[in-house]
Write a structure and sequence with these properties.
The complex is a heterodimer of chains A (151) and B (289).
Chain A lengths: L1 H11 L8 H4 L7 H27 L7 E11 L2 E10 L5 E12 L2 E13 L4 E8 L7 E10 L2
Antiparallel strand pairs in A: 1-2, 2-5, 3-4, 3-6
Chain B lengths: L19 H26 L2 H9 L2 H22 L7 H25 L9 H31 L8 H20 L3 H9 L2 H24 L11 H26 L8 H25 L1
């Protein structure tokens, strides 16, 4: 079927050697650039699938394990802000994480502040801050997570 | 976009794959594909539930989604194109090009919007890109097929048959389902509804779908043989199409983890809820594609 149409069109465009596709209005076939792009697409697809698959196989299913790191303590309006980063060393995402910051003086808790983190994805870091009225650098600062939700 | 292979003509100037006009034609199509990918995927690219699904979704479900999309794209390339011949090579190339466009456009937009960045693990970044690449690739393919053909060839709708129509309806359902399934609102709506609401929603979905079917009929498109008794059209297209929309909805809900922990009746309601826009999507797909 396709051959017939092709030959008819070659005939109508004359015997001058014009490319037959001009009669149809659109060139036919797969261009070189198209092959390259398709190959890139295939490479990305396979790479991504492979990466995700390996990730799935290596996943030990460990529950969220949150590790805190104080990045800076600065004076701001109303008091002080403690900027921190929290990394989830586990394999599961923790959502709605309640972060508790305690300012300790020996055994007594001088000040306690809380904040909620949206998501703590596995092996990723998220940053946040806590406001204190007392100077956190003046005592012992403890950051911990008190709970989370499984998304 | 890649038209069917020309049989080698006797023309000596046939440069094959390196023909500059062929390459230029492809590049124009590629630009359209990027436009289509952005248009289709932008609502999802800016939906926060999609971002968090990127890292919290089970990796194997994500792999399944990526792999299932490939034959979907191949089928779409076959049915939405204007040639009746089935050339696997062309359709496969189109699908892979759509994937390339989908991945790259998603990555760029996510980077631009700071949804992916340095402090994130590669697992998180790639997961976010992967999940967005699916709707973007579908959009890329549709843009090539639809927007491209109109100025090159006459707008003749070829007869793709019953299964072709069903396939297009499935894609329409999938598109709307993908857009809405990740959102929290779907769950909230399902929790508020009573079984009576569910029943009413199912009936309304069927009515709307059937109404669309007749809109298509009146515009003169030869999808349904004229004079078909209404009940026959209703069963073959509307009911089957709706069942299909429900199945697509259930699949998408499962992939996005929205069915986790739900009992059967809740799962049914949430499927009906998502099935409503999916049904509208599938009916619209028939009209548009």
């Amino acid at each position: 079927m396709a051959n017939e149409t092709q030959q008819k069109q070659t005939a109508t465009s004359g015997a001058q050697g014009e490319p037959s596709s001009e009669a149809d209005g659109a060139p036919k076939g797969i261009s070189a650039i198209e092959w390259v792009v398709a190959f890139i697409g295939l490479a990305i697809l396979l790479g991504l699938v492979g990466f995700l698959f390996v990730g799935a196989v290596q996943n030990r299913g460990l529950p969220p394990s949150l590790r805190f790191e104080v990045e800076s303590i600065s004076a701001v309006t109303g008091g002080y802000v403690v900027e921190f980063a929290v990394t989830n060393d586990g394999d599961t995402t923790a959502a709605d994480v309640t972060v508790v910051g305690q300012l300790l003086d020996g055994e007594t808790v001088v000040e306690e502040q809380e904040m909620t983190l949206d998501y703590a994805p596995p092996h990723s870091a998220r940053r946040g801050g806590l406001f204190f009225s007392n100077n956190p650098a003046a005592g012992e600062l403890m950051l911990s997570a008190s709970g989370y939700l499984e998304p | 976009m890649s038209h069917r292979t020309a049989s080698t003509t006797r023309d000596s100037r046939n440069l094959g794959a390196f023909d500059p006009r062929l390459n230029r034609h492809f590049l124009i199509g590629l630009a359209r594909a990027y436009a289509g990918a952005i248009i289709f995927a932008l609502p999802m690219l800016m939906t926060m539930e999609m971002w968090s699904l990127g890292f919290s979704l089970d990796r194997l479900q994500l792999v399944l989604l990526l792999l299932v999309t490939l034959p979907l794209l191949v089928g779409l390339s076959h049915f939405v194109g204007f040639e009746p011949t089935f050339e696997l090579k062309e359709d496969l190339v189109d699908a892979l090009v759509a994937y390339a466009v989908g991945f790259s456009s998603s990555a760029v937009v996510l980077l631009l919007l700071s949804i992916i960045g340095e402090s994130m693990s590669s697992d998180e970044i790639l997961g976010k890109i992967a999940i967005q690449a699916v709707p973007a690739a579908i959009g890329a393919l549709l843009a090539q097929a639809q927007l491209g053909q109109k100025d090159d060839e006459e707008e003749t709708q070829r007869d793709i048959g019953y299964f072709g129509t069903l396939f297009l309806m499935a894609v329409g359902a999938l598109f709307l389902a993908l857009n809405l399934a990740p959102t929290e609102e779907i769950l909230l709506i399902a929790f508020r509804m009573t079984p009576w609401h569910g029943l009413a929603l199912a009936l309304v979905s069927l009515l709307i779908m059937h109404g669309f079917v007749y809109a298509v009929d009146f515009s003169g498109e030869a999808e349904i043989p004229l004079g078909s008794p209404m009940w026959r059209v209703f069963l073959r297209y509307t009911v089957v199409g709706y069942a299909q929309a429900l199945l697509m909805s259930l699949f998408v809900l499962w992939v996005f983890g929205r069915t986790d922990g739900l009992d059967a009746s809740r799962m049914l309601v949430i499927t009906l809820v998502l099935g409503f826009p999916a049904a509208v999507g599938s009916a619209a797909a028939r009209l548009i594609l």
